[in-house]
């Protein structure tokens, strides 16, 4: 066998390296000089893994005792999240026999839910969407099948009884209202989209519509504001994506979106003037696409996700430039990183779970746990079990210090504009706050009366009458009606009349409702059988007594919950202090040994 020359071997090695580099899948490229070849200008593009600080993000489900269990989650087939979260409360749309209701729980009220838990029950039809006010953690908006949008005030401790009195009721839609969206920077601006193909722009401070957008020819699938709220992106059943100027109702750009028959969703991508949409292809494959908001004639990128049938919802994080894609009925959540250069969206990883989801709520960035390097938190509604399960998306870091690269300044719970300023044409970026304190930032804005915002007061006229009656001072008089006489006695008989009145009052006091109940249920010595209830108390007295007892029971239960929460906080603080003392002792021992 003839010997092989060294030059031939070096050329073969060079060719092998070039072939391998051309076949390797790539997302990022690095130029490497090939030293094995004697040719002076031989260079090859080696394709490696792109570096990203979010490359190793992973999801962690909370333990069962930190979930919300025994919830009758709605079975409505509407394409909505059915869950809304803020740093104080979690709200979940529930299944009811008639009308519509949703549950509101404080975040720390985890575990198994009481079957008779209090709910918001003011709608006459099924609730289709709920959203918390971004500037007031106690105000939540809901829309329903009864063609109305309503605003509710939730007290800080949660609900102690069913809430039926709304703050504002907004009428205008002729058919059911499918979606609602709060303005990200302007106060008291709310948008609602209905099955009448209309979008209403509401000033909830005045309780009236300031603009009606009528540019859609079919059912609206989704609405999304950009960062400063100057533009609105919508998807529609006519398979078109639109970018709208919401104050004038003018369509700035319009183009064909996903060609599938099912619903498509959209969201703006930060300050990059781009829109991301999710939908279905002509062959029912799920897709995501990135568009230039100024030119919607064709997408910048369009990629196939898989062939499942559930509608995909996008969740974009402005602070980390990550977008999460979660399909209804899926058990997984895919997450991507958004960049300025093509292909604009890079797949990072996915959170896998064997339990499908009916909906997902998400916590605003000001409510995540910075100590655990948590960058996003979902609240997953299970389809089969009545369970709401929090899922934390965490960046693995060894240091316990605050990670400034993970937590830039985020949107504050303060409006940058008033409703009047925004309607006059002004735009402003969101006000920002630092997350370095490590404390969950929530708002506390008690409901107060104001002449400028009369619509944000209870609208029930019967309640106003009750409040007016209760505010008057009452003077009890226990005398029987038959013994009452007008005070026209003479001065000579004043003393005798006063004694007689006192005696009558003393005798009448023995016939109060309390003594009647005591005689009925408390057996005294020498007493005969208790007199039947219907002979002692009339029906109205029984109802009023039950109402008073129920109110006292609710107040006592609320006090017990507050005491329990204070006890838990104190125990947690004690554990933290013990850990700190143990760490200091270990450090002191190490220093002494050195």
UniProtKB/TrEMBL annotation:
As for family, the record states:
Belongs to the WD repeat coronin family.
Entry GO MF terms: actin filament binding
| Annotated coiled-coil segments of the chain | 560-594
Keyword annotations for this protein? Actin-binding, Coiled coil, Repeat, WD repeat
* Signal peptide region: none
**Gene for this chain:** LOC113515368
Gene3D superfamilies, alphabetized: YVTN repeat-like/Quinoprotein amine dehydrogenase (2.130.10.10)
Q: What is this protein called?
A: Coronin
DUF1899 domain span: 47-111
Q: Which positions does the entry assign to WD repeats?
A: 120-162, 170-212
């Amino acid at each position: 066998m003839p010997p092989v020359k060294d030059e031939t071997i070096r050329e073969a090695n060079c060719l092998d390296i070039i072939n391998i580099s051309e076949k390797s899948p790539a997302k990022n490229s690095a130029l490497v000089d090939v030293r094995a070849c004697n040719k002076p200008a031989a260079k090859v593009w080696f394709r490696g893994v792109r570096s990203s600080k979010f490359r190793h993000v992973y999801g962690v489900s909370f333990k069962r005792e930190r979930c919300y269990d025994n919830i009758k989650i709605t079975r409505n087939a509407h394409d909505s999240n059915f869950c809304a979260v803020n740093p104080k409360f979690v709200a979940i749309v529930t299944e009811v026999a008639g009308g519509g209701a949703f549950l509101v729980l404080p975040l720390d009220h985890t575990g198994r839910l009481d079957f008779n838990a209090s709910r918001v029950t003011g709608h006459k039809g099924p609730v289709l969407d709920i959203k918390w006010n971004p500037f007031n953690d106690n105000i939540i908006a809901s829309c329903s099948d009864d063609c109305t949008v309503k605003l509710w005030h939730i007290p800080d401790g949660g609900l102690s009884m069913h809430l039926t009195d709304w703050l504002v009721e907004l009428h205008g839609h002729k058919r059911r209202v499918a979606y609602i969206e709060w303005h990200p920077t302007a106060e008291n601006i709310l948008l609602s989209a209905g099955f009448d193909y209309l979008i209403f722009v509401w000033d909830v401070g005045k309780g009236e519509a300031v603009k009606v957008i009528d540019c859609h020819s079919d059912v609206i699938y989704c609405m999304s504001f950009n960062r400063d709220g100057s533009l609105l992106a919508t998807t529609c059943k006519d398979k078109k994506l639109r970018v709208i100027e919401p104050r004038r109702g003018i369509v700035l750009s319009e183009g064909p979106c996903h060609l599938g028959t099912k619903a498509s969703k959209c969201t703006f991508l930060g300050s990059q003037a781009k829109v991301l949409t999710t939908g279905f292809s002509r062959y029912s494959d799920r897709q995501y696409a990135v568009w230039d908001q100024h030119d919607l004639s064709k997408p910048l990128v369009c990629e196939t996700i898989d062939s499942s049938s559930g509608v995909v919802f996008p969740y974009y994080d402005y602070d980390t430039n990550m977008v999460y894609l979660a399909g209804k009925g899926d058990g997984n959540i895919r997450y991507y990183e958004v960049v300025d250069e093509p292909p604009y969206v890079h797949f990072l990883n996915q959170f896998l779970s064997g339990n499908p989801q009916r909906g997902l709520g998400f916590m605003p960035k000001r409510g995540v746990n910075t100590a655990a390097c948590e960058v996003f938190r979902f609240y997953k509604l299970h389809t089969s079990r009545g369970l709401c399960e929090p899922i934390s998306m965490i960046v693995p870091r060894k240091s316990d210090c605050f990670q400034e690269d993970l937590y830039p300044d985020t949107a504050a719970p303060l409006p940058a504009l008033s409703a009047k300023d925004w309607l006059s044409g002004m735009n402003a970026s969101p006000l920002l706050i630092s997350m370095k304190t490590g404390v969950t930032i929530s708002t506390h804005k008690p409901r107060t009366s104001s002449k400028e915002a009369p619509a944000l007061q209870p609208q029930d006229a019967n309640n106003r009458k009750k409040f007016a009656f209760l505010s008057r001072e009452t003077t009890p008089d226990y005398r029987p009606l038959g013994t009452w006489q007008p005070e026209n006695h003479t001065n000579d008989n004043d003393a005798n009349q006063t004694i007689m009145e006192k005696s009558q009052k003393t005798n009448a006091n023995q016939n109060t409702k309390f003594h009647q109940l005591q005689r009925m249920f408390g057996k005294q010595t020498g007493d005969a059988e208790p007199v039947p209830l219907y002979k002692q108390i009339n029906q109205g007295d029984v109802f009023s007594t039950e109402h008073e007892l129920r109110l006292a029971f609710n107040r006592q239960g609320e006090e017990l919950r507050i005491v329990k929460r204070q006890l838990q906080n104190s125990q947690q603080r004690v554990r933290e202090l013990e850990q700190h003392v143990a760490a200091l002792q270990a450090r002191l021992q190490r220093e002494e040994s050195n």
